[in-house]
Amino acid sequence: MSEAGSINPAAPDAGVTAPARSFERWMGWLRRNLFDSPANSFLTLAAAVFLALVLPAVWNWAVTQADLWGDSKSACGGQGACWVFVRLRLPVFIFGQYPPSEQWRVVVAVSLLIGFAVPALRDGTAHRGLWVALLLTLFPLVAGVLLVGGVPGLPFIDTTLWGGLTLDVVIAFVTMAGSLPLGVLLAYGRRSRLAGIRTVSIAFIELWRGVPLLTVLFMAAVLLPLFLPNGATVDRLVRAMGALVLFNAAYMAEVVRGGLQGVDAEQEEAAQSLGLAWWQTQTLVVLPQAMRIIVPGIINTAVDLFKDTTLVTIVGLSDLLGAVNQSLKDPAWLGLAPEGYAFAAVVFFVCCFAMSAYGRSFERRLARGQGRQP
Length: 374
Prior knowledge:
By secondary structure, the protein is mainly alpha-helical. It is built from 15 helices and one strand.
């Protein structure tokens, strides 16, 4: 028996201090992820050299020599970025031409979106299904009344005044909320045993997937009004969102169909053996498992959709990128395109990265819940 306080030489990491163990873990991580082969080692070193050459120059331009304070372009020294342009035009980049006195309505709508989305997306929320239903039904109604107005106490705001990041968020939310349910229906329609329903679903999916999105938006903006009865009009924003819903529903249908095919046939057979009807089997057994499978596909579609909202500028709508382009045409701010586009790129990156991060976190929680390695 060893004396009290003596070190057992057979014990792992005996006598190794905490800093030494931490250093060994870091070295092990580096070997596994960056230097596990000659090719990866070369790529790691090449990336390090590239960053060492580029990052200092970017840092100097964006931070060290940048100008933030002032009320005109003349306040910028010319050596670094002129963030004065972004700071002064920030309300336009966020709200577009929405009247300043009514911008509180946009803030309230976004706050409601967060308030409904957090319980709907968070694990462990009581009555989570109810929160999801409220997010997809009650919230759009309340937000629409807030943003459009036309009721006592809320002046009417024409959609031609909507713009900036607000417009991107509105279009992305409406498109995802509309395209996902429609995509589920199309996916089931494509798997239907009824030849008529299957043919119509396949034709719809292949038609919209085979047409460029720019063409779809042009058709919604230019051709659709030609087929309306005399005197009938449809708001330009509504036409654009309708076209995006139909376009993305075709892609969402294929994502959902892949998830449905990933569910074992025995699951459906077991549900039927318990006496469940077809619609009960699909909604309670098959579809929930399929939705877990297609989480990466849904997140990928959502990220692509959010970036594609910038294409609405071609039909006269001014989203964030459109607001930047319009601001750059102002003679008082000519020559500041790098600052404007850098700001737009950072905003889109942050939003898309947040969606991707949530998707990865959701996948890890699902993996742990199913006893798999995340």
